[in-house]
Amino acid sequence: MARFDRRNDNTEDSGESRSRRAFKPQAPLRRVRNTKLLVALVVLLVALLGLVVRLVYIIQVHGAEYQKMVLINQAYDTTVIPFRRGDIVDSKGSILASSERVYNMVVDPSVILTYEDHRYYEPTMRELGNCFPELDMQAIRNYISANPNSKYYIPENGRRLTYSQIAAFKAVQSENDFVRGIYFEEEYRRVYPNGSLASSILGFTTGSNSVGGMYGLEGFYEDVLVGTDGREYGYQNEESSLERTVKDAIDGYTLHTTIDAYVQAVVEKYLKEFNDTYKNNHHTGNGAENLGCVIMDIDSGEILAMAQYPDYDPSDYKNTDPLLGTRLIEAVQNERGYTEYKKTDTYITQEVLDGLDSSQLNVNFASLWKNFCVSNTYEPGSVAKPFTVAAALEDGSITGNEVFTCNGFLEVGDHKIKCHNYIAGGDGAVSVQDSVAWSCNVALMKIGQAMGREEFCKFQQIFNFGLKTNIDLAGEARTASLVYDSKTMLPTDLATNTFGQNFDVTMIQMITGFCSLINGGYYYEPHLVNKITNSSGAVIENIEPRLIKQTVSESTSERIREYCRAVVMPEGGDRRTGKTARPAGYAIGGKTGTAQTLPRGNGEYVVSFMGYAPADDPQIAIYVVVDRPNVKEQDDAKYATRIVRNILTEVLPYLNIYMTEPLSDAELAELAEKQLDNTLQFGGSDHKVAEEEDTPQETITDGDIIDPTGEKSRIYPIWMTYPIDPATGYRVSPDGQFFDAYTGELIGGDNSSLDDTVPGNDNLIEGQTDETGVR
Amino acid sequence: MAETRTYNQRRRSGQNPPPEEKRRVRRRYALWEQLDLSLILNLLIIMGFGLLMVYSASSYSALRMFNDQSHFFMRQLLWDIVGLGLGLVVVFIPYVIYKKFALVIYLISLASIFLVIPFGSESHGASRWVVIPGTKMQFQPSEIVKIAIILFVAFMINRLGEAVNTFQGMAYVFVPTIPAMAFIFGLTSHLSSALIVLGITIMMLFISSRDYKFFLGVLILLGLIAAGVCAYVASSDLTGGNYRFGRIVAWLYPELSTDEAAHQILNSLYAIGNGGFWGKGLGQSVQKISALPEPHNDFIFAIICEELGAFGAIVLVLLYVLLLFQMYRIARRTRDRFGFLLVVGVMAHIAIQVVLHIAVNTNSMPNTGVSLPFVSYGGSSAVLLIVEMGLVLSVQRQNVISESDYETK
Hints:
The complex is a heterodimer. In chain A, a hairpin with a 5-residue loop joins strand 12 (327-333) and strand 13 (339-347). Chain A is built from 24 helices and 27 strands. Among the domains of chain A are: 381-699, DD-peptidase/beta-lactamase superfamily (Beta-lactamase, 3-Layer(aba) Sandwich); 718-772, no CATH class. Chain B has one domain (36-408). Chain B has helices at residues 7-12, 19-26, 31-34, 37-66, 71-91, 97-114, 116-119, 141-160, 167-188, 191-208, 213-235, 243-252, 260-275, 300-333, 337-361, 379-408, and strands at 120-123, 126-131, 138-139. Chain B has a 3-stranded antiparallel β-sheet with strand order 1-2-3. Chain B is globular. In chain B, 49% of the residues are buried.
């Protein structure tokens, strides 16, 4: 190359000089043209330099802003990979709430109209119409012709399609190259396979893609259940090697609850049965304003079941049917300008519903959706008596050997406070045990006076009355303002408080405190979730029972167990109040409650029974509240005890608790009728005993009570419905889990049931619902 | 010793060989000596870079439209190869013969524009392509006009000689250009091609005439007109206005305009901003996915900026500067006026397109579709630009040959 250069120089020089000689007129023009060529080149270089400067200027000054715009545009172009909201399963691994994959149809007119001859248009429209008859094809055509450059359109009826609905079209799409511009976005839909089962515990989700949990566990554990959306940048084509970054979704965590779906189903069955029995009995409306039941593990605070009536279906939470029969609630503007919600005397019927506007409807829905057991407050009534006695024993105000005299009333201040058998002239001599067993108000008031208000209020605090238990459910009520402290308490308040009137509690406060009275004084924080796992089954958090404090000593607890046993068992004598709560074959303890509501004397009562079972080795506590039963005379705790009896009759054998009491013929017949004969294997003695004089049927005094027998649907544990796999001898659930054929113990990991990535798995869940019949 | 050494060895050592030996050896120039290898190398680098960027920029839309991500790349590769073949032929054709055919070629090119009427393929509201009947192939007649104008204007100026410095002579030069512009703009609505044709003519005329003042005056006049239009547009109601003014509005206020042109410009700027100084990396452009229409064509520079950053863009600009300088060197060396004008015309053509393309992509001027020479996707443009480079190399070859002829006399 060096030679070229040198030669160039040579020729250029010599060329100039020679050309000047040979072509004289042209010579200046050549020099001019070279100069001007250089000028032009310089101008062009300056222009290019200017553009480079401009380029750098754009990046320097607007770079960040433009980068942001790209990200915004990018977000528009990318596909969101939705996370899957975590499941909620019961203690046996049965699914209570799950998420099912659904598909939204997206029409991309810009792709359909790619070519000028619109070669994709007609084939795509035809196949869409064939595969989705519910689509309004004319509307889609109109949209495409009006918005040819649009990239995203979800047609009406194109949302939340199941995989089986889109499968046919997907097959067509993969065969026919001319069907283009239709794709499906994934989303998840929350499903509650057991219908209304445990609805008050679960709550529901309101948002699309199953976010926005409200009430219950869905509301309380919202941040645990939701995951993080993933994103796929750019391409829809999965075969593309150019596929851009895919950021996977992080699925929500699964909640393993302490709830036992079988126990829960039994509880709900009997609450509903009660309602069916007393519905429209005394007046129109439900069998009671509210029915609530909590079953709790006495030594850990774990909730086994928590139910209420009326309940609702969380998949269809806006359905107004459950509102029928409830008291209409109205929002009233009070004189200070605040909105108050007041129960009216109207019971909701279909005509009433039709007349409600949406805000009035929402007020009533809010009352339906909230969890009665943790959110509603009421005066507990006599179920508070064991607490008063325990407090007095604990601080030494009584020894337990006292005998009180009951004349049917006690004068406190200017008030004459009556006992329950005021008309009969009182109970006469009442021991401490009798005061609980017979529910004597006078004896309790005297115990309270012996304690004094300071001590009494101290123990109200120790039992946590008025304060939240911190159960892991949304919407727990705090009733501190409805409980007295020693400064505000008057002698009459002390007197009425001793038997559970004049202060408000929640069900969960009562049963949590009661568990501590029974289990030796250990106050556990009540909880529903004992394990949190991620979507692949790895444990994120184990929630151990949390011991908060010791309320009473073991010796006091032993006394209370004794007294509560006397409420139900024969040692309490004929006047004992809770005998109708005893299930066949078991000894249990407990306390009845019949609380007056405000205003006093309106004849409306909250009746309840709080018990533990079995009596000699307490394992579970149960608390049933019947809020204003739909009967003429409401002040009868049997409305609650009979529910307790029915529930425990089925639940105790299921929990593998051995029967300790002899069975009478009537009881054997009852068990046979309930298909519970096999429970004899759990230890019930099969020798006949003499009929007790107080069989449940005889103790029913009210003439207007219909015996709640008749055809009952048989309820088995979910695992019992699964077929036995001949190869392994285990029962196999539809989602592939193995259960011990006789105990229902879940075998091996349960992760497979949580993985819902296989489209169509939803069918299995639905099938499970049908088979179990648990609703 | 002296007898055994070759001519070249003796020349290098400064010895003057005997006259008879000189004559014998100098006629034999190896092929690589006749061609400007550095220019060819530079051209191939730019073309290779172009192919790479066409693949990167077009793969997504190719996949979406044709289910084949290398669709555009393969076609561009094919046309580049066809162009190189044709260019190689042109290199070995003595360019002097174009003096004879310049008028014919010019007329044929004008006629080809009229083919869009029966055989046009419409795109973006204008017929710019002619479909060759019976085939799927199509070409852009305006690209043919550009090379024809270079040939014919060179022929005219060469013919005019010193007369080119007169006003009448200058007017003559525009005689072929004006109808070419009119037909291109009138029939294909391709404003940018018409402007490029005008630019090529003006630049060839400027370099071959003695005058500065006239061109400076024209430049100032054009600047004043442009400023006047802009001022008018800026002061007038932005909602009205026709298509061209709409583009000026889009240029001045891209954020405000709802025009498609403004949308393109904004996304081009976003791409540049997104790339920053070092770029997102090859193949990592986001804007090519759907924000920029035809990212492999009129907005490929923005994609280059996004993927390779200002750094990559400046490297590419430097390659173009080198290419211009290489052509400048050939032009200076060319004694023959017609050959000189051909090189100047090609240089003008490439330079104007590079400047306009980058200017549009950086919103330095109103949006008009200009492709980036040797890089943008487009068969007609690629083939004819390579043929133009063949012309330049042909001139260079003649230079080498004629210099040797001259010296042997």
